[in-house]
Design brief:
Distance between the termini: 32 Å
Oligomer: single chain
Strand order of the largest sheet: 1-2
Largest sheet: 2 strands, parallel
Number of helices: 3
Radius of gyration: 16 Å
Length: 64
Amino acid sequence: CRPTLRTWIAKRSDLQWTSQELFDLLGSGRLRIDIAAHVPLHDAAQAHRLIEDRRTAGAIILDP
């Protein structure tokens, strides 16, 4: 069975608390998300190829 968010956070109050902690860290700059590429949604197949070929380090954002 594949783990989901509920595997680690079962109660809604815990989800709200941890989400707030995450957004506070992002907002303060103490946590940074590396974005490797922005890819148009219509090129989603290209985004998958980048991941499969291991040519990225960081998130790939699909833009509408």
